[in-house]
Design goal:
Blueprint: E1 3-9, E2 19-28, E3 38-40, E4 47-53, E5 56-59, E6 66-68, E7 72-75, E8 82-86, E9 89-97, H1 101-106, E10 117-119, H2 120-136, H3 141-159, H4 165-175, H5 182-189, H6 193-204, H7 208-226, H8 232-238, H9 244-255, H10 259-266
Antiparallel strand pairs: 1-2, 2-9, 3-8, 4-7, 4-9, 5-6, 5-8, 7-10
Helix pairs in contact: 4-5, 7-9
Domain HTH araC/xylS-type: 167-265
GO molecular function, one term: sequence-specific DNA binding
Pfam family, one: DUF6597
């Protein structure tokens, strides 16, 4: 029988302005057992991901194209669905950054990271390979967290990352995408609308309107999972859609499926089948 451990946790307090969450997935399948695919719909997560055992093959269902990822990757905003197929023995650790922080952490603009998994070693050099090796050899899950936090804090201190009104406005948009206009965002960021649009592309890889749509789609998707008893019209209205068909349009674009079909596709994903964290 498949053994799956899935865990998310907050980083230490000094890292929380920069890192939103850490995520661990550890899968061991029995001989001949097939690990279900993960239907990963569009989302605004920006991550540093360590594949510590096994590998990931990503399939873009709209085109049928496939890709196998490097051992350590960086990803930006995802505006399309990808289906992830993992090895029978698989372990990954994902560092999920606060909105807009990855561009600061890398000191590079993010457009080329959109819908991509970039080899982290090409950007972060040999240091990230050393961190990967340490994580592969970590004796416990707790040690994984300690090692990756130590690396993150060393780099953040070297870079002297700072925050501006634009960064705070980003978090407000991510928290409430349906009630945030571009003019309000520009006001809160102390920038003009055109400056906000440029900053979005630089720090998030996509423009503010697309980012807001993906955020709203993700919010609707998450809300239905929290309240499965709600019908889809209730979810649509709660998230600022005009009606159910307006919601369906985004699900077809960002999830390549109707709302019920996307949830069904995700129901057997490894993280949904996981045993409780120990």
């Amino acid at each position: 029988m498949m053994d799956i451990h899935y865990q998310t946790w907050l980083p230490s307090a000094h890292l929380q302005p920069f890192i939103r969450e850490l995520l661990l997935l550890d899968v061991t399948a029995a001989p001949g057992e097939v690990v279900p695919a993960k239907a990963m719909a569009a989302n605004t997560e920006q991550c540093l991901v360590f594949y510590l055992r096994g590998q990931v093959t990503a399939v873009h269902p709209a085109s049928g194209t496939t890709a196998v990822y490097a051992p350590t990757v960086l990803n930006g905003t995802q505006s399309a669905r990808f289906d992830f197929y993992i090895s029978a023995r698989f372990r990954m650790l994902s560092v999920q950054f606060q909105p807009g922080v990855l561009a600061k952490f890398l000191r590079v603009p993010l457009p080329e990271f959109t819908n991509a998994r970039i080899d982290a070693e090409a950007v972060l050099a040999a240091e990230i390979r050393q961190v990967q090796e340490q994580l592969v050899n970590a004796p416990t899950y707790a040690a994984l967290g300690e090692l990756v936090e130590a690396y993150l804090w060393r780099r953040i201190q070297r870079l002297r990352l700072d925050f501006q009104p634009f960064d705070r406005a980003l978090r407000a948009l991510a928290a409430q995408p349906q009630g945030y206009s571009l003019d309000q965002l520009a006001h809160d960021a102390c920038l003009s609308v055109s400056q906000v649009e440029r900053r979005f592309v630089q720090q998030l890889g996509v423009g503010p309107k697309l980012y807001g749509r993906i955020s709203r789609f993700s919010q609707a998707h998450a809300l239905k999972q929290v309240h499965p008893e709600w019908d889809w019209l209730h979810v649509a209205v709660a998230c600022g859609y005009y009606d159910y068909q307006h919601l369906v349009k985004d699900f077809r674009q960002f999830g390549y499926a109707t709302p019920p079909a996307l949830l069904l596709a995700q129901a057997q994903a490894p993280d949904r089948l996981a045993r409780p964290a120990r």
